[in-house]
Amino acid sequence: MQTSASLVIVGAGVVGCSAAYFLTKKGVRDIVVLDQGPLFDTGGSTSHAPGLVFQTNASKTMTTLSRRTVELYSSLELDGQPCWYGVGSLEVARTPERWLDLHRKLGWARSWGLEGCLLDAAEVARRVPLLDPSIIHGAYYVPTDGLAKAVRACEAMAREAMQHGASFHGHTPVIGFDTSDGRVQAVITPNGRIATERVLICTGIWGPKVGRMAGVSIPLTPCQHQYARTTPLAELGGEEREIIHPILRDQDVSMYYRQHFDGYGIGSYQHEPLLVDAEDILPPERAPIQPAMMDFTPEHFGDAWADAVKLLPPLGKTEIASAFNGMFSFTPDGFPLIGEAPDVRGLWVAEAVWITHGGGVGRTVADLMTDGVSDLDLHDCDLNRFEPHAHTRSYVRARGAQQYREVYDVIHPLQQMEQPRPLRATPFHARQRELGAVFFEARGWERPQWYASNERLLTDYPVPARTEWAGRHWSPIAGAEHQATRERVGLFDMTSLPKLEVTGPGALSLLQGLVTNQIDRPVGSVVYALMLDETGGIRSDVTVARLGEDRFQVGSNGLLDLDWIRRHLPTDGSAQVREITGAICCLGLWGPRARDVARGVCDDDLSTEAFPYFSARRIAIGEVPVEALRVSYVGELGWELYTPAEYGQRLWDLLWEAGQPSGIVAVGRAAFESLRLEKGYRLWGVDMTTEHTPYEAGVGFAVKAKKGEFVGREALLRAKDNVCRRLSCLTLDDPSVVVMGKEPILAGGNVVGYVTSAGFGYSAGKSIAYGYLPAELAVPGTQVAVEYFGEACLATVAAEPLFDPERRRLTV
């Protein structure tokens, strides 16, 4: 085996093989692929996975990854044998709730450009004659779904890669890494050391173990999942073709099915999660079957078998011919782990990837490792997205188990995780509980969504009722809090907003090279800006407050921003960045009476002349030292008030008492969201991502191209005059219809875009949806429709913002 390589890929499953395939197509040579098992049936999840590929997902990114996977698998063959059977898929509905949800799922497919339709029960039975149509309402059908022969695809991709400079080595486990000087230097195997500056770990269920060898946390847990094959069915009459029936999901009972020649395969998620530690998985030479296959546990399969026979009665005349518990990877949020490790340069990860997305992920990783960017928004899949608590064994196992339980559940967009909570609480938590706060969770933080004590506001501020779906995990109290903020003053807990501190003599130069706006302004200035990738896509939006000559506070979108800035730190050590979210707390004081409240406990000059919009000042609220930023995400007069966490409760008490004469109201995040929506303020990760340029997203005002070089500038200069789509404000003609996001937007009966953010604007009195439209349709007055659970709801493109377009309330 060679002693050096340009790249070592650890793992020859579907992800490792597809990555090698695409990397060689992009011109990368001298790739070494290692696996502890035999090639290519290596013994990991790829080897035992039944191969069903359902492309539709609530995530546009995950749907695209699966579509690219189907495109890849269908192009491959091995020795004349196909790697893909495009038999289509059916997702049946036993319950009215599931049938309604399948209408929502069809909406996702239409939004993401995937062909699908709904079939009645009789048509479903025609396509799968084994099925009893009397127990279902119908099914969602995707003709391009199907069955992957994953091991066969691995070998086909490997052969292609080997023709372009890759080599594959089975029975070669990795036993260590040399990661000196903050970079990967070599991979250690029993057969010797391979010097390399780049490594890609794609070892699936062994990811945490292999990552630890390199000092990198890979937060996933292996979990067992049952799969059984039946004896032959008389109805299939000795069928010699592997599969002719569509693949089948029976999500109301957490099951799926596929044909195996004249028998059937049954997969069940019905049982409680059976977690496994990566370190406890046997190596190939010691595993009784294959490492990722464990002994079948029949005590978990009784109800599943009964449910299978009820849907497919002919199964009742068969027996279980073979069965096992197979292991798959589950992360805390159900998304893959893709990216370069934060502390070991050159060490890349592509983990927790199932067969459905394997080919798409391989292509994406190849793009990232060669071009530095992907054409997909990957923030939900980024390896570096998790907070520290989400890397603990306890959290990973608890959340991985819950992801297993919910794998086929109907999940509402606002549905909250229940455990483990609470993890992070702000200094205001006790006061919020006294006011009856209903807490939602974000990045471990407990954040009030609304306050039960504000129910009294409904007398003065009536709120329209909502339909059952839109009304879940919502309260009309949020609408009253919204209106009270517009008329009085609201107190918002903004502590969970991720905050970074950038310091040092090189801080200004660092940030100037990363953000789009001009931040070389006097101390006390606050600037809204964007961070872009090299293609001009929006990586994040930030507020940058210059609090000293060499000190900046950055209101960010989380750890991905921290990672991005760290990767651009000057090598001379002249700038540093650290996260300070937990060290300081923040209250937003906003509303037309905000200045009256602040003046009651602050002797500083808070007039517009002394303290203009988008400026920062050091002030005192009573005896509490505060860094005050005059900014607002709700479109009202006021400040973000920052202080060390130990002063937090006192800050709340002072403002609360001073605000009583002005009718101060504690306000939750639900109202915060509706306030920003009717002001047209964009939410990164929802309204804009790396797939959008500032000019498409309507934030071109934050770009100052003449200031000098910054990441993405050249791409923006090319894109400015070629805007083919625009983020647009829509108002629904029927104000009682409140959509939730991701619904398709129609014009002339055709899908022309999709909803990003949506909600009700209580001050505007309108149901609002934002979405990307072709530029020629993004004109106020244009009539479109939003498809909501299969119904076309008329909407009109509106001029934005809907509320206070002249910004008079902000700058008074």
List the quaternary state of the chains: single chain
Cα end-to-end separation: 72 Å
Question: Low-confidence spans: pLDDT under 50, at least 5 residues?
Answer: none
Give the helix tally.
20
Average residue pLDDT? 97
Integer-rounded radius of gyration: 28 Å
Spatial shape? globular
Helix content: 10-25%
Structural category: alpha+beta
Instruction: State the major sheet.
Output: 10 strands, mixed
Tell how many strands the DSSP assignment holds: 43
% residues in beta strands: 25-35%
Outline of the structure:
This protein has 812 residues and is an alpha+beta fold. Strands 7, 8, 9, 16, 17, 18, 19, 20, 21 and 22 form a 10-stranded mixed beta sheet that branches. The chain starts with 6 loop residues before the first strand and ends with a helix.
Label this structure with key terms.
alpha+beta, 6-stranded mixed β-sheet, 28% strand, 812 residues, 43 strands, 10-stranded mixed β-sheet
Q: Would you mind describing this structure in some detail?
A:
- With 812 residues, the chain is an alpha+beta fold.
- The chain is 23% helix and 28% strand.
- It contains 20 helices and 43 strands.
- The strands form nine sheets. Strands 7, 8, 9, 16, 17, 18, 19, 20, 21 and 22 form a ten-stranded mixed β-sheet that branches. It has a six-stranded mixed β-sheet with strand order 11-2-1-15-24-23, with helices on both faces.
- A hairpin with a 2-residue loop joins strand 18 and strand 19.
- The model has no long low-confidence stretch (mean pLDDT 97).
